[in-house]
Design goal:
The protein has about 1300 residues and is mostly helical. The chain is built from 72 helices and four strands. Helix 24 runs parallel beside helix 30, helix 25 packs across helix 31 and helix 35 packs parallel to helix 38. It is elongated.
Length: about 1300
């Protein structure tokens, strides 16, 4: 079956494929594995079969799949059965795409899938989601009755508890309404052609769901009825519906006005305090948009709500304040003269009298003054000239005295007023009388020389607005002088703002005063697409615009503009001035191109194909031999050279399009080059596209607009950059690396190419050229951010996150982490850790590979210098165990361990089925200290996380970990494996625990970990463990004995109680050990068996004699035979003689001891005579080869203690001889002194006193026959 699932021919083999599928699913001898393969083959058939064959097999197989699903259980635990069910849902989705007619006539399949989405296991929901998405396509052309039934069903499920159900319900509607999958630059064109619902229908639907939207109470005081983000999306969509209705409906009907009024109520509620800033801005802009189409309706509505609008003038958002000001201006057309005077007076007095106003309040008041006064200048309502002059004078004071930001806003207000009528010429300010521009000339010049770009733009555009109605040539000259003063500016936005101002002064701009003041107008460049053919279609309306003022002063101003541009700036020696002149000339052409004067100039400034740029032969010939003279030939030459940008330099040499050196200005000229030489440019797109891509996403919005239009002329950018990701980076670094960073904004287009992009990034990071490596690092950072975002389930749907994870994670594990380039390794590990953090449960399918890779990296990516230190640790005095602990501690602070911690958190019961076998394999084959400690620690933490879910795997893990603990040589790894084995034992079965503990009793490390971690399990096996611990306390190895001593202390309350409790088991174990047939055990115990026998006889002599009267004699004979060996044990014999207290021992032992005593005396004498030369006999020290006199005397003393007096008297000679032997060392010392010529008085005195003191004592002891006292006094060495 696995072969069939890779064969297209098998998928088209009818009816064999059908028979094969039914045999696998319903065959008499089928198995769960066969059913899974059959479903997998079904998916393959649905995907690759020809449509003719699919029409024959599809309906039959579909019925079989549905029967199979009906017969399956929801609580399916078998992994194979789950896979079969997953393939079944995949097959339904594929069939819905290829044969939608099977589903579109009824909603049964939708009901079935949504029910499964609610009830099926979490692991299957992702597959069902994909099937539901595919099924949605099948219903696109369904009958109306089916669509209504489907709509009701979806509405019923939109409140379902399961997030997957809600996602599937809302997905298609969200994509349809908000264009989530479309590029941002395509939205405008999409909106024009979109089939939006009627505004009335949408409002009725919304108000039906939330009737409180239509309440007449003050909206600003209430809470928001929808979440802010929901409300924001709703406002945007309603505004698009409104625009669509305006294009197709009669906007003067009562029905449309009523709908617009309802929309106003909804938008006003969006201004509630609970709303977000972006919601407030969107709502106010929407109200202004309605006002631009329904001026009278909006004006009459807000004429009675002026206080509400005035309150919004202090809003924190700039756009909201601007929109509130526009609405105030619109509302003024419907109020009386008295109200208008009161409103303007209030606005002016507020900004004049209050000194501590916030900037927001000041800005809002100044904007409102401009819009309100501009509306009053239309005549309705009418205000007096004196009030008008005083207000203008106040605005002039603001320009003079306030900050640059407020001064620019005040100039903007003056500009709005100037759109309606000329400003007064009789203003008195600081003893200067005249027009506004004359008074403010020096102040404006200083402001224009500043660094605040926004301030300069507002002032320059305001100069143009002020000059629209101006008839005085002196005023126009002042404005032109200020504008031309910007000719050396290098800021393109300032130059284009100046170009707009010159267009207003020139006259004939394509806007009216109402469009500027009563709509969401921003600028000429952003309001009209002046590079498209729309200009010609509305040229007649522009020529009749109210702003097209034509008088003698205006004609003189035009002459001044032409003279300045053509006589000075275009031919200036300064590059900045040539650039400025070019931008201004382009602006005049685009905004005022239909003015008769511009039409006369076009032949002089426009280059055609045959326009001669240079004198023939002036700059040589083309590659083909032709002369370089025309514009077209310049384009051809640049293309032949593979450097189209050379056209800019040619044009600059000719002193024509100097502005092409700038970013934004280049678009005007180059767009025509691209149109005329597009076919020729195609081979050179590699060189052209990188620069255009970067400029297309320039931070300046205006530059972006030009580049997007230019890119539409060339070719699809994403395909170009992603087509060649593996080319030579030495030539393509800037083509691929830098543009790709920008392309990541189109996430849905890039995700499927992530593997190729990562390969490109890694190749760049490993390049020999430093600039390429830097570009590669930059690309790596960008693609890292994109990858993490695409795999983060909080930002991306789970299906998309899983798909991206399936592309990226295997590549990073196989290609990135194992790379020999350190920067790639570091980046890959960091990315994997971040992916694990953000992916959540989506990481589960990849846990086995990820965990094993991280564990292996703990050793493979360790600093190699530590291996060198380990080799030389002994030489420098570093303990190997301490070094191992240090290495383990360092590894646990690494990024790999952070990733492993995240993997543990993501592990669930299903993940264990694939993860545990991989961990078991790593326990068997893992190399390196950190890897082995890591896998043991990971298992420990994993078991603590999953707890009872580990039970099915405890048998396998316990055996592996137990064997690893025994075989491991390093202490750190041994302890880690022991801890893992102990935590596994905690969840094992009783039989497993018994078997494991019985196998473990000889391993102290394991026992100690069992006691620490699995104490509750271990408590039932103390009878087995305590004897072993007791016996092992007496091991010769100090480390082992210390370990078992600690175990003994931990598991015993007191020695006496514990020994009494487990005495039988301990004695049984000791007897078993003593009777062991092991030669090593016998050799090890031969040295201590006599000590044990002596202690036993001392403590239990009565019991031994009572149990077996012959036993004391046998024991004594054994001891005496040991005394005759090289390693003699007389002290033990003394213990036994004293313990049994048998008088018969004296007659058996004393003669033997007398002989031994003679040998001991000889050895002692020899030792004393040769003590300074350290003589040896038979290459052995004398102490080892001779008998110890002290031990013999101990044994003699014990014999005398237990003997009868008559037996002692019989051996009088030997007793006296032994006493002499005991005194022999002192006699030898004294003899050495007496041999000298003159003995000292002290020595003589000692001998004298010794004789006279001891002799009476001896006589007294003999007289009273107190042998026991004599023995006790004479020999103090007895125990």
């Amino acid at each position: 079956m696995s072969v069939f699932c890779r064969s297209v021919a098998a998928a088209n083999a009818f009816p064999s494929a059908l028979q094969c599928i039914f045999g696998c699913i319903y065959g008499s001898g089928t198995t769960s594995r066969l059913k899974q393969l059959g479903m997998e083959f079904t998916v393959w058939v649905f995907k690759h079969a020809l449509i003719d064959r699919l029409k024959l097999m599809g309906p039959v197989i579909l019925n079989a799949i549905l029967r199979q699903l009906d017969g399956s259980s929801l609580a399916e635990t078998d992994a194979v059965a789950k896979d079969a069910k997953s393939f079944a849902f995949q097959a339904i989705g594929l069939l819905a795409v290829r044969m939608p007619q099977l589903f579109r006539d009824k909603i049964d399949m939708a009901v079935r899938l949504f029910t499964s989405l609610k009830l099926e296991d979490q692991s299957l929901r992702l597959t069902i989601q994909e099937s539901v998405t595919s099924l949605g396509v099948a219903y696109k052309d369904a009958p109306l009755a089916v669509l209504k039934e489907l709509e009701a069903f979806l509405l019923e499920n939109c409140q379902a508890e399961q997030s997957e159900v809600r996602f599937c319900v809302m997905r298609e509607m969200a994509l349809e309404g908000l264009h989530l999958t479309k590029d941002q630059e395509l939205l405008n064109s999409a909106d024009d052609n979109a089939n939006y619902p009627k505004l009335k229908d949408m409002l009725d639907y919304i108000c039906l769901r939330q009737p409180k939207l239509l309440d007449s109470t003050e909206h600003r005081e209430k809470g928001l009825l929808f979440p802010s983000k929901t409300y924001f999306a709703m406002v945007r969509f309603l505004l698009k519906c409104f625009k669509a209705d305006c294009r197709i409906c009669d906007s003067v009907t009562d029905e449309f006005r009523a709908t617009a009024l309802t929309l106003c109520q909804v938008l006003e509620h969006g201004m509630a305090f609970d709303g977000s800033v972006e919601l407030h801005a969107a709502s106010m802009k929407a109200l202004v948009e309605i006002g631009s189409h329904q001026k009278k309706l909006v004006a009459s509505r807000f004429a009675g709500r002026l206080p509400w609008l005035k309150l919004l003038l202090g809003h924190v958002d700039f756009d909201t304040r601007e929109s509130a000001s526009r609405l105030l201006g619109i509302a003024c057309s419907e109020i009386s003269t008295t109200e208008a005077i009161a409103l303007t007076t209030d606005l002016v007095s507020t900004i004049t009298q209050t000194k501590s106003l916030r900037f927001e309040n000041q800005h809002g008041l100044l904007c409102a003054i401009g819009y309100v006064l501009a509306e009053c200048m239309k005549g309705v309502p009418k205000i007096s000239e004196s009030l008008f002059t005083s207000i203008v004078n106040r605005l002039v004071c603001v320009v003079e005295l306030e900050t640059s930001a407020l001064a620019s806003v005040s100039m903007e207000a003056l500009g709005h007023i100037g759109l309606r009528r000329p400003l007064p010429n009789d203003i008195n300010h600081d003893a200067i009388s005249g027009g506004v521009l004359l008074i403010l000339h020096e102040r404006l010049r200083k402001l224009l020389d500043g660094n605040d770009i926004k301030t300069i733009q507002r002032i320059v555009v305001a100069l143009g607005h002020i000059s629209v109605k101006e008839a005085s040539i002196s005023h126009l000259k002042n404005a032109l002088d200020l504008i031309f003063g910007l000719s050396r500016s290098k800021v393109e936005d300032v130059l284009f703002a100046a170009g707009e101002a010159l267009s207003f002064i020139w006259g004939g701009v394509p806007v009216t005063g109402d469009e500027i003041l009563k709509s969401n107008y921003i600028s000429l460049s952003q309001t009209y697409n002046y590079l498209s053919s729309e200009i010609s279609s509305v040229s007649m309306r522009w020529s009749s615009s109210e702003l097209n003022v034509d008088n003698e002063s205006r004609a003189l101003a035009r002459d001044l503009i032409i003279k300045k541009l053509f006589d000075e700036l275009l031919y200036s020696n300064r590059k900045e001035e040539r650039c400025a002149a070019t931008v201004w000339l382009v602006s005049l052409t685009m905004y005022c191109g239909h003015h008769p004067r511009i039409q006369l100039l076009l032949p002089e400034i426009q280059l055609m194909e045959d326009s001669e740029v240079f004198q023939e032969g002036a700059i040589g010939e083309t590659l083909s031999g032709g002369k370089l003279s025309t514009y077209k030939e310049l384009c051809n030459l640049a293309n032949e050279m593979g450097q189209p940008d050379l056209i800019y330099k040619f044009m600059d040499l000719a002193n024509y399009q100097a502005s092409l050196n700038s970013k934004r200005g280049a678009a005007f000229g180059f767009s025509k080059i691209a149109k005329q030489a597009g076919d020729v440019l195609e081979p050179h797109l590699r060189e052209l596209i990188p620069k255009l891509v970067r400029l297309q996403y320039d931070p300046e919005k205006n530059v972006q607009i030009q580049r997007k239009q230019l890119m539409s002329i060339l070719i699809s950018l994403s395909r170009i950059c992603l087509r060649n990701p593996d080319q030579d980076f030495g030539a393509l670094e800037k083509l691929l690396v830098l543009p790709l960073q920008i392309l990541f904004k189109a996430e849905n287009l890039v995700s499927k190419h992530l593997r190729s992009i990562w390969m490109a990034a890694f190749r760049a990071m490993d390049d020999i050229k430093e600039t390429v490596r830097k570009s590669g690092d930059s690309l790596c950072r960008s693609v890292t951010s994109l990858t993490i975002r695409l795999c983060d389930i909080s930002l991306t749907p789970i299906s998309d996150a899983s798909e991206t994870m399936n592309i990226v994670l295997p590549f990073l594990l196989v290609e990135g982490i194992v790379s020999k380039v350190s920067s790639i390794q570091k980046a890959s590990i960091g990315i994997v850790m971040k992916l694990s953090k953000g992916a959540g449960n989506a990481i589960r399918p990849y846990l086995p590979d990820l965990v094993c890779c991280m564990l292996e990296c703990l050793s493979s990516l360790e600093d190699q210098r530590l291996n060198y230190v380990e080799l030389h640790a002994a030489n420098v005095g570093i303990h190997a165990e301490k070094l191992d602990n240090l290495r383990v501690a360092v590894s646990k602070d690494s990024t790999m361990w952070e990733t492993l911690d995240l993997c543990i958190k993501a592990t669930d019961k299903e993940s264990l089925e694939s993860l545990v076998p991989r961990l078991a394999q790593l326990v068997r084959s893992g190399v390196g200290l950190n890897t082995r400690v890591g896998v043991a620690s990971f298992i420990t933490l994993l078991v603590q996380k999953v707890k009872d879910d580990i039970k099915p795997f405890t048998s396998m893990l316990s055996k592996l970990l137990f064997r690893a603990t025994l075989e491991e040589k390093r202490g750190a790894a041994k302890r880690s494996f022991a801890a893992a084995c102990a935590i596994t034992l905690k969840y094992g079965s009783p039989s497993l625990a018994q078997k494991l503990i019985e196998d473990t009793v000889s391993c102290g490390v394991l026992l100690k970990n069992y006691a620490n971690i699995a104490a509750d399990v271990l408590s039932g096996y103390h009878a087995t463990i305590i004897p072993v611990v007791f016996v092992s306390r007496f091991e010769d190895d100090k480390d082992i004995s210390t370990l078992y001593e600690e175990l003994w202390e931990d598991n015993s309350t007191s020695d006496r109680v514990t020994l009494q409790l487990y005495l039988q088991e301990i004695v049984s174990l000791i007897c078993s050990c003593i009777s062991s047939s092991s030669w090593a055990s016998k050799r090890k115990g031969k040295d201590v068996i006599l000590h044990a026998l002596a202690s036993l006889c001392s403590s239990c002599s009565i019991a031994i004699a009572a149990d077996d009267p012959v036993a004391p004699g046998v024991i004594l004979s054994s001891i005496l035979s040991s005394c005759s060996k090289k390693e003699r044990s007389y002290r033990e014999a003394a213990f036994i003689i004293k313990a049994f207290d048998d008088p018969e021992c004296f007659s058996e032992v004393f003669p033997f001891l007398s002989e031994v005593c003679d040998q001991a005396v000889v050895a002692k004498t020899t030792s004393a005579n040769t003590i300074n030369t350290s003589a040896v006999i038979g290459n052995e020290p004398i102490e080892d080869s001779c008998l110890a006199l002290e031990k013999v005397l101990d044994c003699v003393t014990a014999c005398i203690l237990v003997a009868r007096l008559e037996d002692v008297l019989k051996e009088t000679g030997r007793v006296i001889h032994i006493l002499k032997c005991a005194m022999l060392p002192l006699c030898l010392k004294l003899q050495c002194c007496l041999d000298k010529t003159a003995a000292s008085n002290d020595t003589s005195y000692l001998i004298y006193e010794l004789f006279h003191s001891l002799a009476p004592k001896i006589v007294e002891a003999i007289r009273t026959v107190k042998i026991a006292q004599f023995s006790t006094t004479k020999f103090l060495i007895l125990y």
